[in-house]
Write a structure and sequence with these properties.
With 249 residues, the chain is an alpha/beta fold. The chain is 31% helix and 15% strand. It contains seven helices and nine strands; from the N terminus they run ααβαβαβαβββαβαββ. The strands form two sheets. A seven-stranded mixed sheet has the order 5-4-3-6-7-9-8, sandwiched between helices. It has a two-stranded antiparallel ribbon with strand order 1-2. The two termini are 24 Å apart.
């Protein structure tokens, strides 16, 4: 995303103005007008329980049933949702891959946007969302609380039972990717599992080293227009889908 840099930028917008020397010590700090506006906008966003994001297919006159319901992003949790086109493209790829397996099971690690689009695309697909944000408990038995700091602190019934894993580590650090890699190993079936990893271009070498994945030509984008380049790294040859694998330079 780069999520860490973006959070620092956003946190920088909400800073208190220096005190006037004539103000008594026990008076409250006063926010600048810009900081106050940023804080009010953030609080207003947090009070919106659901944000409705139409897929690209519904932008040009689609009906109401085509809309996908997403909770509001919480940047304190490093949450930045995908653009509809990105979510639809990745969901379509996962559904295509799922046809290779009988009784396919998909794990979505820290990518709730994709979970929603997958269930919209194919309600019968077995998808498990692993996510830190407890707001997603609304998905019932398909939600599992997940803290990447405890990469294998998961129910044993999830061990080695997923054919397809999609992961979007919350931070762009090697340490975070290493721990998410542990989770991927815990979840994936021992043979023939497929991995899609959405993370920053800066993680290219680490992703190849830790997970043996390569970038495809298709590039994911986020609704928040993050400044860092993001990539979709995969563990298989997609043929011409996703624009194919990127050629080595």
């Amino acid at each position: 995303m780069e999520k860490e840099d973006e959070l620092q930028r956003l946190h920088g917008h909400v800073s208190s103005a220096p005190r006037d020397r004539d103000v008594e010590d026990d008076d409250s700090l006063v926010l600048s007008s810009q900081a106050l506006a940023a804080l009010q906008e953030f609080l207003a966003d947090q009070n919106k329980p659901v944000a409705s994001t139409p897929p690209t297919s519904s932008v040009a006159g689609g009906d109401e049933s085509d809309k996908v319901e997403l909770v509001a992003e919480d940047w304190r949790l490093s949450q930045f949702w995908y653009e509809p086109e990105t979510a639809e493209t990745v969901a379509e790829e996962v559904v295509t891959l799922s046809q290779r397996f009988s009784g396919c099971r998909v794990a979505c690690i820290a990518c709730p946007t994709l979970y929603v689009y997958l269930k919209k695309r194919d309600p019968s697909l077995h998808v498990q969302l692993l996510e830190y944000d407890m707001r997603f408990e609304r998905y019932g038995s398909e939600f599992t609380f997940y803290d990447y700091n405890e990469p294998e602190d998961l129910p044993l019934q999830l061990k080695h039972c997923f054919h397809i894993i999609v992961a979007d580590p919350p931070y762009l650090s090697r340490e975070c990717l290493e721990r998410v890699s542990q989770t991927i190993s815990f979840l994936s079936i021992p043979v023939d599992s497929l991995l899609l990893l959405l993370t920053g271009e800066v993680q290219r070498e680490h992703a190849a080293e830790l997970l043996g994945v390569r970038p495809c030509v298709f590039k994911p984008h986020h609704s928040s227009k993050l400044g860092n380049e993001f990539r979709l790294f995969i563990s298989y040859d997609p043929g011409t889908r996703l624009g194919g694998l990127e050629e080595d330079s």
